[in-house]
Design goal:
With 309 residues, the protein is α+β, with helices and mostly antiparallel strands. Helices cover 24% and strands 36% of the residues. The strands form 3 sheets. Strands 1, 2, 3, 4, 5, 6, 7, 8 and 9 form a 9-stranded mixed β-sheet that branches. It has a 5-stranded mixed barrel with strand order 10-11-17-13-12. Strands 14-16-15 form a 3-stranded antiparallel β-sheet.
Length: 309
Amino acid sequence: MVRIQNVYVYSAFGLAISSELPLPELNSLDLPGDNIDVSIKLADFTETKVLLNQEKGFTVHQDEVAFEVPNTALFSIRNGSEIIVVPLKEFDKDRVRLYILGTCMGVLLMQKRILPLHGSAVAVDGKAYAIVGNSGAGKSTLASAFIQEGYKLISDDVIPVTFSQDNVPLIQPSYPQQKLWEESLANFGMDKGKYEPLFERETKYSVPVKASFYNESLPLAGIFELVKSTSESAEIRKADGLEGFRILNHHTFRGSLVQRLGLKKWHFEYSSTILRNVPAFQLIRPVLRFTPYELVAKVVDSMKEGGLG
């Protein structure tokens, strides 16, 4: 881990990140130079001008988004380049890291005009495939099944989508960790005693995947919306027309902020460019049995048959 003048330096989400708070989940950046994209700073009330509405939720003012986790910390995300953390009386580093690497990074990516999707992304034969879905749909579990089958993880939870110079959609790698429920660990035959539970979520665990992490950007070749169903069989359905826009809109990380940040037009244009290049699908997951390996086989078979991008 690199530390320069009391600052740790990392690479994640396609960005060079300096942080006054250690973030051990991230890959360290060996030669950061002066090219830091994001600075994470600790402050107190005398050093910051964070102002929050009395209402619960996010405060949005020009290029700043702020929110409070009661008794833990205030967070301010500014100009797509800075995250300010103001510790409160029950400051807990583990809990704070969850918010920095989740909500804060999702908001910051939007401020940088990078689309954050909520889901997992896997690398298959030199291409990236995004798995999005509602909370509890099984996104991380399906990504873990891809890993068990020898493929690699690119991102979990927040998926950064950028473009190459010739407008090819790319997935940027986040960091080598998954979050899996206890039930998923049991179904995969993984001993939960080997993993750390997430703060206040004792049945969800942090699972390092350094050996199965793909740490370079890859072209996005398909988007799958994972949907739970009481049907008997797993299915793949092409999402045509406006359905692709619905999927990207519904599964943008912290998508409720798009309009408040004045990014509705940007989001539509960004989504249009993605969907011109990348097919979208619904992946139907039966809930009455454990089907991740079956879903992986269906997706991979479709790739081989040329049914996917």
